[in-house]
Amino acid sequence: MLDLTGRVAIVTGASRGIGRGIAALLASHGAHVVAAARGENAAGTASEIRSAGGKAESVPLEVTDAPSIEAMVAGVLDRHGRIDILVNNAGITRDQLMLRMKRDDWDQVIATNLTSAFAVVQAALKPMIKQRGGRIISISSVVGQSGNAGQANYAASKAGLIGFSKAVAREVASRNITVNVVAPGLIETDMTKAITDKAQHDWTAQIPLGRLGTTADVAAAVCFLASDEASYITGQVLAVNGGMYM
Ligand SMILES: NC(=O)c1ccc[n+]([C@@H]2O[C@H](COP(=O)([O-])OP(=O)(O)OC[C@H]3O[C@@H](n4cnc5c(N)ncnc54)[C@H](OP(=O)(O)O)[C@@H]3O)[C@@H](O)[C@H]2O)c1
Asked: Which residues contact 191 (CB under 8 A, 6 or more apart)?
């Protein structure tokens, strides 16, 4: 059983879907979870964790806004004095074929999915370096590895997270900080609800394990990478995709 007792873990995009599942599983392994999303959106996640006997608080965070990130990290350090685990999970899609994609669709996706990780990691790294330890895990996507028509912006942001994480992993390994990526395939959340039944059926046919993934599947991979058991793993991409891309 993984033991994260006493660890302070920030999860961005923790109001629903994969982020909510990650927050709940980290807390069930003993971590104190800081569930972050816009406004009060992550309050439900934190109260659900507390109702189950775990430790959690919710914080407002707009990942495209540098002052919001600085305030969130400063608040966590004031209250807890440390950050042990950072999960960069917040993300959006603005799908469109390349010839029709608006510059704004590109900018918003890159800002929310990739530039956010740059800014949050930069803020969280200082305390991790001081502590001489930490775990950074970013949620990429199978699409960042395989590409997908209609998702040039999203694929670029998710592939960018992989290169970014490998570079930072090399910079901070000597400080006992690991930096890894989890790349989910098709997971049942609000993000995939918009996909039609026909498209879901077609996608499922391409998944060797024959089903969509669950938020629990992704959360299990994140918790492993956050644990002591993964202390010799850095700069890696752990695919949680049912074999969809090998
Ligand atoms: N579902 C899949 O099949 C799948 C597959 C591969 C990768 N992923 C990745 O996994 C992550 C989570 O996906 P999901 O399916 O759980 O999505 P989701 O249900 O749409 O949830 C997205 C989360 O991101 C947060 N978020 C979005 N924009 C934000 C912003 N500007 N500032 C702060 N928080 C923001 C949302 O919080 P608010 O409450 O503030 O809106 C929400 O908590 C994403 O990075 C996604 O790209 C998903």
From this structure: 17, 91, 93
The alpha carbon of residue 126 and the mean position of all alpha carbons in its chain are separated, in whole angstroms, by: 20
The pLDDT tens digits of the residues spanning 203-238 come to: 899 999 999 999 999 999 999 999 999 999 999 999
Name the CATH superfamily housing domain 8-240. Answer: NAD(P)-binding Rossmann-like Domain (3.40.50.720)
| In the chain, % of residues over pLDDT 70 | 100
Beta strand 237-240 with 177-184 is parallel
Catalytic residue among 154, 162, 180, 212: 154
Alpha helix stretches (DSSP H) within 29-100: 43-51, 66-80
**Residue from 38, 73, 116, 211 whose mutation best tests the ligand 1 pocket (most atoms within 8 A of CB):** 38
Please write the tens of the pLDDT for every residue from 98-153: 999 999 999 999 999 999 999 999 999 999 999 999 999 999 999 999 999 999 99
- Does the pLDDT at position 1 exceed 90? no
Residue 225, by phi and psi: left (phi above 0), alpha (psi -120 to 50) or beta? Answer: alpha
Pocket test for ligand 1, best of 10, 64, 189, 240 (most atoms within 8 A of CB): 189
Tokens 């709940």: give the residue. Answer: 24
pTM of the model: 0.98
Per the annotation, the verdict on 154 as an active-site residue is yes
Enumerate residues lining ligand 1, CB below 6 A.
Answer: 12-19, 37-38, 41, 61-64, 89-92, 112, 139, 141, 184, 186-187, 189-192
